[in-house]
Amino acid sequence: MNGRAHRYTCPVFHTPERLFAGYLLDLDGTIYLGDEPLPGAVALLAALRRLERRVAFLSNNPTKDPEEYAAKLTSLGISATPDEVVNTVRTTVRWLSEHYTGATVFPIAEPPLVRALERAGFRVSDDPAEIDVVIASYDRTFDYRKLQIAFDALWPGGGAVRGARKRARLIATNPDRYCPFPNGRGEPDAAAVIAAVEACTGVKCEAIPGKPNVYMLATALDALGLRADECVMVGDRLYTDVRMARDAGMASALVLTGDTDPNTLAAAAPEERPTYVLPRIDLLLPADARATLDWPADTAPER
User: Fold this and answer.
1) What is the Cα–Cα distance from 93 to 21, expressed in whole angstroms?
2) What is the pTM of this model?
């Protein structure tokens, strides 16, 4: 541990002292890992429902649509509706609808994003001469063919392919380097696709409407009908969940059940640290609320 880490003087764990009107909850590494709920997640969500708190589930993962996420949460014992899920399928389609209405798009993406784009009225094409916007995403079918299409649509010297058309624009769903799996495993995420496209074309991604962009929080707050100061953002990553909350002026709670470990947290600069630090997500409830629910003062039920 370096000298910077030794200067970290905040308590390792700091739990909220009040209830919030709204709870914005990351999924992977916060509510569940793989196909298993993390300790305390099921109990926490049941308690928030009993306390009539508003809830939104946030994820940078675009390989499922909100309906699939709601179904997964329900199968884990957590009540959820598609309207409560704000993931990068939803934010990407919303952002494009606001900035590139009627565009022809080429999503380097899996079927949930492609379906959502088509439902929203966007034309999807793999013809570089037609493409207005290339979307780099978390795509486990990414191959050289897709990279070539993106290259031809974006490359400044691609006039022979596009004719008189302007070159396409590049956006992405999310900036994550990898998606975490159980037992410390993972797989490459959208950042790998973004890097490949940027490296060969020299074109920089102009927008990423997933975390840590506050656009995702704004989308969730609109759905909840609440202000930033009435809510807390809960997640496992300093560079997405916590950064987004800080940029939006919202309280943040970091759970040490996913990407961030105590050493990483200790090494973080003051401006990178969360409002609260939790060893497990059920400690998000303040002590008086846990007492009302007949939970022990310092812990909560496993599920």
Assistant:
1) 27
2) 0.87
DSSP state of 150: H
Residue 169 has pLDDT above 90, yes or no: yes
Please give the residue that has the higher pLDDT: either 186 or 247. 247
Using alpha carbons only, how large is the chain's radius of gyration in Å?
20
Residue whose pair of structure tokens reads 């290259």 in the numeric block: 151
What pLDDT, on the 0 to 100 scale, is given for residue 160?
Answer: 52
In this structure, the number of other CB atoms found within 10 A of the CB of residue 100 comes to: 16
Superfamily of domain 95-201: HAD superfamily/HAD-like (3.40.50.1000)
CB atoms within 10 A of CB 290: 19
Domain ranges of the chain: 11-60+211-292, 95-201
For the domain made up of 11-60+211-292, give the CATH fold: Rossmann fold (3.40.50)
Q: How far, in Å, CA of 171 to CA of 19, rounded?
A: 37
One DSSP character per residue, 201-258 reads H-PPP-B--STTSHHHHHHHHHHHT--GGGEEEEES-IIIIIHHHHHHT-EEEEETTS
Mean pLDDT confidence for 129-144: 97
> Do the Cβ atoms of 137 and 62 come closer than 8 Å?
yes
Residue 163 pLDDT grade (very low, low, confident, very high; cuts 50, 70, 90): low
Task: Give pLDDT, residue 5.
Answer: 40
Instruction: Name 252's bridge partners.
Output: 233
Other CB atoms within 10 A of residue 124 CB: 17
Average pLDDT, the chain: 90
- Distance CA(172)–CA(164), nearest Å, equals 25
Query: Distance of CA 72 to CAs 9, 28, 35, 67, Å?
Result: 39, 12, 8, 9
